[in-house]
Design a protein that fits this description.
alpha+beta, Transcriptional Co-activator pc4, Chain A, 4-stranded antiparallel sheet, 2 helices
Length: 139
């Protein structure tokens, strides 16, 4: 099984880790380990597939912790931002358990904005996927 997580709803956002640098010896100054990723987004009439970017497992851990808290409280906001700010995700909960995923992806000068409407039942699966990644690469 590959290291990936997905947020589903009226579209989807999927991040696939293709390579982990330094594991388990060298920790990145961004937290955790540097990772090369592929991205797929399907939202409101456009689709991005297999676009490459870099992030860190430390950033994934921070996102996981925020998402876990907001999902258990069914309120609040969780953020995922890469250190180069080429990917920014904002996951907002409302009082009825509805989830709005608002994102921005920058690639070679293009700035793609997207939105996916979801709910807490989909986020449970996302948390399970993230937990597997975090457990595998926790320092």
């Amino acid at each position: 099984m590959e290291d990936e997580f997905e947020i589903k709803g009226n579209g989807y956002f999927k991040l696939l880790i293709t390579r982990v640098h330094g594991f388990p010896e060298d920790i990145s100054y961004h937290g955790g380990y540097e990772i090369e990723c592929l991205l797929e987004i399907d939202s409101e009439g456009f689709k991005v597939t297999t676009s490459e970017f870099w992030a860190s497992t430390g950033e994934l851990l921070e996102f996981y912790n925020q998402l876990k808290k907001t999902n258990s409280e069914l309120s609040g906001t969780a953020y995922f931002r890469t250190y180069e700010y080429n990917l920014i995700l904002t996951v907002n909960y409302d009082v009825n358990g509805h989830v709005s995923v608002i994102g921005e992806y920058r690639y070679w000068g293009d700035n793609l904005k997207f939105k996916i409407d979801s709910d807490q039942s989909y986020i449970q699966h996302t948390l399970i996927q993230l937990q597997k990644i975090i457990t595998k690469y926790t320092v």
